[in-house]
Amino acid sequence: MSLHPPTATDESIRFAYWVPNVSGGLVVSKIPQRTGWDAPYNRRLAQIAEEAGFDYALTQIRFTAGYGAEYQHESVAFSQDLLSATTKLKVIAALLPGPWNPTLAAKQIATISHLSEGRIAINLISGWFSGEFRAIGEPWLDHDERYRRSEEFIRALRGIWTQDDFTFRGDFYRYTNYTLKPKPVDPQPEIFQGGSSRAARDMAARVSDWYFTNGDTPEGIRAQVDDLREKARANRRSVKVGVNAFVIARDTEEEARAVLQEIIDQADPDAVKAFGHEVKNAGKASPEGEGNWAKSTFADLVQYNDGFKTNLIGTPDQIAERIVALKEAGVDLALLAFLHFQEEVAYFGAHIIPRVRALEAQRGRRAQAA
Ligand SMILES: Cc1cc2nc3c(=O)[nH]c(=O)nc-3n(C[C@H](O)[C@H](O)[C@H](O)COP(=O)(O)O)c2cc1C
Q: Which end of the chain has fewer CB atoms at under 10 Å, N or C?
């Protein structure tokens, strides 16, 4: 296969990486990791990623940890730092309603949009960690109420960003003739959201640009995509889809599987169990009992967002094939985590993205011929 395929087109699947702005990397394991959570490590990583062909970086928001991940840098400030260290990469900052309200978010993100010439986006978090909310004195709402608040948050944010004299009467947020100046640069910052429950899809179909979901098989993703698309169509909207995956690329599948086994064998059982206990407040607490982590096993929980389930574990050829299968299931963006981020992001850019682009071009030609 040619390793000099065409560059990305509008139809190409896009790549994002999880910013390790939290200690311990993206696995709840004591396996040695060369990933750092500090600013110098992350600036360098952002530069490597944009060179490697990544379009987005996603920062995380956490205020406490009861399950490893002891230290956490704040997402918006950290995102701005990465934007000033790069020139092409878009950075998605996570916002948690409660600590943030739309007023602060609209102002902060509008300023960063000017500072970065439009490279900032947001990821609206609806909340799953009740212990965190209790610790910081924030009321803990029921599952679907959290999404009702998030939806109002997004409606208010879009209103403030696009209208003068913005007036809004919600149950959670209220505005009267509010005019923000300056507004963000055009195009408006993209709005991502995380979560896999029915409430998450209902909200995405109504107000979000992107639906981020936990790791899953192409079949599991397709079921979510079908539901989301039907709901979005009913609202005359379209929503893009991003899926989490933990990548282990090695020369042979056996080597990659051995690394996975080692990560799981060295998992910190107390931290994994504490995490498993807390995530019961996510999808499982919804009326349907479905959503993020509703069916996760101990091994799944070793990666925070079920990233082993997506199975990007094997040789570069196998991984590229599986990414194209995700795309065919309706995925627009693969959100990736790695054990040793700097080295493995560079490797992904050199060995996997070119294979994905070549496969995409090949399938595009086949579809045209057919
Ligand atoms: C890709 C992705 C990123 C997320 N990032 C964060 C985060 O930074 N901080 C956080 O507290 N929750 C984060 N979440 C959690 C979600 O916002 C949500 O609260 C959780 O997945 C429960 O969703 P569900 O009940 O709809 O399944 C993330 C979820 C996904 C899928």
A: C
pLDDT digits (tens, 9 = 90+) for 52-64: 999 999 999 999 9
Whether 212 lines ligand 1, by a CB cut-off of 6 Å, is yes
Decide if 215 contacts 246 (C-beta within 8 A): yes
Q: 163-184: per-residue pLDDT in tens?
A: 999 999 999 999 999 999 999 9
- In this structure, the number of other CB atoms found within 10 A of the CB of residue 202 comes to 18
What single-letter amino acid sits at 294? A
Please report whether residue 258 resides in a domain. Answer: yes
- Integer Cα distance of 167 and 322 in angstroms: 47
- The amino acid sitting at 54 is F
Measured in Å, residue 268 CA sits from the centre of ligand 1 at 22
Residue 1 lies in a domain: no
Round to whole Å and give the CA distance between 222 and 365.
24
Burial class (CB in 10 A: 0-12, 13-18, 19+), 324: buried
Q: Which domain holds residue 196?
A: 14-369
Helix (H) or strand (E) holding 210: strand 210-213
Within a domain: 8:
no
Torsion-angle region of residue 365: left (phi > 0), alpha (psi -120 to 50) or beta? alpha
Question: Strand 166-169 and strand 174-178: pairing?
Answer: antiparallel
Q: pLDDT digit string (tens) for 115-128? A: 999 999 999 999 99
- The pTM for the full model equals 0.97
| Contact predicate 72/18, CB 8 Å | no
* DSSP secondary structure code for residue 233 in this structure: H
User: Is the C-beta atom of 208 inside 6 A of ligand 1?
Assistant: no
User: Whole-angstrom distance between the N-terminal and C-terminal Cα of the chain?
Assistant: 22
Here the CATH number for the domain that contains residue 159 is 3.20.20.30
Residue 203 near residue 150, CB atoms below 8 Å? yes
